[in-house]
Amino acid sequence: MTSVSDADIRAAAERFPDVFHEPTRLVWGRRALAVGMIAYFAFCVWAFDITFERLFGGLHKMGHVLYSMVIWKDFLTWDFSGILIGLAETVGMALLGTTIASLFAIVLGFVAAKNVVPNRFVHHIVRRFLDLLRGVDTLIWALVFVRAVGLGPLAGVLSIIVSDTGTLSKLYSEAVENVDRKPIEGVRSTGASHMQRYRFGFLPQVMPVFLSMSLYWFESNTRSATILGIVGAGGIGMQLSERMKVQYWDQAAFIILLILLTVAIIDTLSKWIRMRLIGKREL
């Protein structure tokens, strides 16, 4: 093998400068971007008045709150029934909202997939509709539905349905667009109808992905439903908000622990369901 000397490399660099050196415009563009990001970061620090005095000056207040959280007073007199009912409402909101949103997303996900509906106009309309649904945060939808249907879990369920439909539909459509075409062509060669192609060509490939995404969003919505309760959408969040307003930090800490425990249980169950339905087994 012929060796290349440093002189040969220098000669090649002089002959082909564009290959060995980045264009000057690109270099200055990167530098300008870096300077702009640093300047914007510094502006945010200045505009938000982020100082060490403000950051560490309130630690003594936080210490009082943390101390109140670990000292549980009159534990046996707490309203456990209201707390557990609120927790059950939160899980129910997440389950009902995620399930309905997943059903809607299956239909919209196929319609939004280019390899299913190649019409650009229809594809564009559906995609922008999904952008509208997921572009507005679940908390904002909750405020809208609290105004429309009143306080309670119904507003939380509706906000989860609307927000998750947009997000899951986009994720589902991307899964549909990435399917392997060979099984679909094999089903088509048997003379199957369009619906049979979707049933036996698409669904076996995408259903494990759909299931995994829905289970993850169910777990995520359990946490989100807690925040929704704070704005009046029912559930454990309302119980938490009421106790924080009156500074019952010990009961607030108890509720937070229940939420963490519930999320951990749901995560374990979701993993178990995925392993059984998808056909995998843990080592």
TrEMBL record:
PROSITE patterns xref list: ABC_TM1 (PS50928)
Compartments in which it is found: Cell membrane
InterPro entries xref list: MetI-like, MetI-like_sf, PhnE/PtxC
Matching Gene3D superfamilies: MetI-like
CDD domains: TM_PBP2
Membrane topology: Multi-pass membrane protein
GO terms of molecular function: ABC-type phosphonate transporter activity
Pfam families: BPD_transp_1
SUPFAM superfamilies: MetI-like (SSF161098)
Protein name: Phosphonate transport system permease protein
Domain of life: Bacteria
Organism: Thalassobaculum litoreum DSM 18839
Sequence intervals crossing the membrane: 32-52, 94-117, 138-162, 198-218, 225-241, 253-273
Keyword entries, A-Z: Membrane, Transmembrane, Transmembrane helix, Transport
Annotated ranges, domain ABC transmembrane type-1: 87-270
Entry-linked NCBIfam families: PhnE
GO cellular component, one term: plasma membrane
Protein family: Belongs to the binding-protein-dependent transport system permease family.
